[in-house]
Design goal:
This protein has helices at 2-20, 34-45, 49-52, 55-61, 64-91, 98-106, 108-139, 150-170, 172-202, 220-234, 250-279, 282-287, 291-299, 306-335, 354-368, 374-401, 414-433, 437-458, 462-479, and strands spanning 346-347, 481-482. It contains 19 helices and 2 strands. It has a two-stranded antiparallel sheet with strand order 1-2. Helix 6 (98-106) runs antiparallel to helix 7 (108-139). The protein is mainly α.
Length: 489
């Protein structure tokens, strides 16, 4: 009888053990190392900008010397900004970039306004522009002597968005490997242009660097606009903070990726611009439609076809990096309840924020339909620096209000102060130098997020939840996604 009693007791203990056993948690996996982090920064920053639009910086200062100085100074500013973000990223190890930092520093309203502007305008618009750039270069060889039809460009751009979205929805590793490959391909063309420039300099092609500051147009407004265009080419310096939760050992790999990645980009940008000026005068560069292609025609002929080919790789890499990181912003906003809850769900099979990435890709495809969204990007890009400045200001504020937070990296307070001051100048400069109504429209759009916040987040009307619940349930079954569960320490 004693033996049977022991068996029954053991059976009860086993059942209690099974019942008390917690179900496996569904979380984003830490699969990205240091090399993937560096490739993500380099691959996202070096897109189509450095290959097709250095003339924007030159047009504002009108001389070679100030132009090269601006490119170097933009790199320094991007590095300082990224170091501030490194402190924030290791202090608050949540994905979503500026979103969780604004949430911690100022509360839900500024964080919601950031996600409102980023989710619906700035990020999908930039994704669409990069893919349109890719489509133009990819289709150009098939239409020699004329511009490709707009329908072809739009369809190709939409296909690129669809493929990149699917790849990043299927696997973190697949998206990361694709980024590493495209970054490697991109660095080949960067190396080709830089080495060609060094060879030309060694051959004595230095005429365009004589009296390099002569005839320059230097003023506060022109310098601000030159910085604005240069920093647009550097945009992406904060992308790694969007995927902090997926970095292995983020306390080490996040700052190292920044310290290695951004100075590497800066050196590349300055050397590429020097290479351009070895074969083109300031006037010729300003007249060129695509500077890199003009350089290739003059230096690499008859192998000049490699330039548009590798610019295609470059734009694809930039688009992939943007999709990979910005999809996480939608995911975090959904997790906080600021957008449809479904967007914070994770794929059961692939452990990726698939609904968020698909949502982001869909919005980007919608932006392709109108066609000319360059002006929209120009006017809304100044909004990006509002939130960059606000986020870095939040770092200063939390030094005094959140002293209890652990800070594995602690930058000198002067660095966030400089970045905040520059952000204010960058936001005000285009308004002062060329005041136009679209800047007012942009500001009103950002503030209209307050209405959306009051209606759908703060008040949480029951009718909105009644509509969203069945939609969420059906889409959850269709996409095989589940809510994330908090990791229990």
């Amino acid at each position: 009888m004693g033996e049977e009693s022991l068996k029954r007791r053991k059976g009860r203990e086993d059942r209690q053990s099974v019942q008390s056993h917690e179900p496996p948690t569904m979380n984003l996996q830490k699969q990205m190392g240091l090399m993937s982090g560096i490739c993500m920064i380099v691959g996202t920053i070096i897109g189509s900008g450095i290959f097709v639009s250095p003339k924007s910086v030159l047009a504002n200062v009108e001389a070679v010397g100030p132009c090269l100085t601006i490119w170097a100074a933009c790199g320094v500013l991007a590095t300082l900004g990224a170091l501030c973000f490194a402190e924030l990223g290791t202090m608050i190890t949540k994905s979503g970039g500026e979103y969780p930092y604004l949430m911690e520093a100022f509360g839900p309203i500024p964080a919601f306004l950031f996600s409102w502007t980023s989710l619906l305008v700035t990020k999908p618009s930039s994704f669409a522009i990069i893919c349109l750039s890719f489509a133009e270069y990819a289709s150009a060889p098939f239409y020699p002597g004329c511009d490709p039809p707009q329908a072809v460009i739009k369809c190709l751009a939409a296909a690129a968005i669809a493929v990149i979205t699917i790849v990043n929805s299927l696997s973190v590793k697949l998206g990361s490997y694709l980024q590493n490959f495209l970054t490697a391909a991109k660095m080949i063309i960067v190396t080709v242009i830089i080495v060609s420039g060094i060879v030309l300099l060694a051959q004595g092609k230095t005429d365009n660097f004589k009296d390099s500051f002569k005839g320059s147009k230097i003023s506060v407004s022109s310098l601000s606009l030159a910085f604005y265009n240069g920093l647009w080419a550097y945009d992406g310096w904060n992308q790694l903070n969007y995927i902090t939760e997926e970095l292995k050992n983020p306390y080490r790999n996040l700052p190292l990726s920044i310290i290695i990645g951004i100075p590497l980009v800066t050196v590349c940008y300055v050397l590429i611009n020097i290479s351009y000026f070895t074969v083109m005068t300031s006037t010729e560069l300003l007249q060129s439609q695509a500077v890199a292609v003009t350089f290739g025609d003059r230096v690499l002929y008859p192998a000049s076809w490699i330039v548009p080919l590798f610019v295609v790789f470059s734009t694809l890499g930039s688009a992939n990096g943007t999709c990979f990181t910005s999809g996480r912003l939608v995911y975090v906003a959904g997790r906080e309840g600021h957008v449809l809850k479904l967007l914070s769900y994770i794929s059961v099979k692939h452990l990726t924020p698939a609904p968020a990435i698909i949502f982001y890709g869909t919005i980007a495809i919608i932006y392709i339909i109108p066609g000319d969204i360059d002006s929209l990007i120009n006017y809304f890009s100044f909004a990006v620096w509002i939130f960059y400045g606000l986020t870095v200001l939040g770092l200063i504020v939390m030094r005094f209000t959140r002293k209890e937070l652990k800070r594995p990296i602690r930058v000198p307070i002067i660095i966030p102060a400089i970045v905040t001051l520059v952000s204010v100048v960058l936001v005000l400069a285009p308004i002062i130098s060329a005041p136009e109504l679209p800047y007012l429209y942009c500001t009103l759009f950002i503030l209209s997020g307050l209405v959306a916040y009051a209606l759908f987040v703060h008040c949480k009307f029951s009718w909105a939840q009644k509509i969203s619940k069945p939609i969420t349930m059906h889409l959850q079954m269709l996409m095989e996604v589940v809510p994330e569960e908090d990791i229990t320490e």
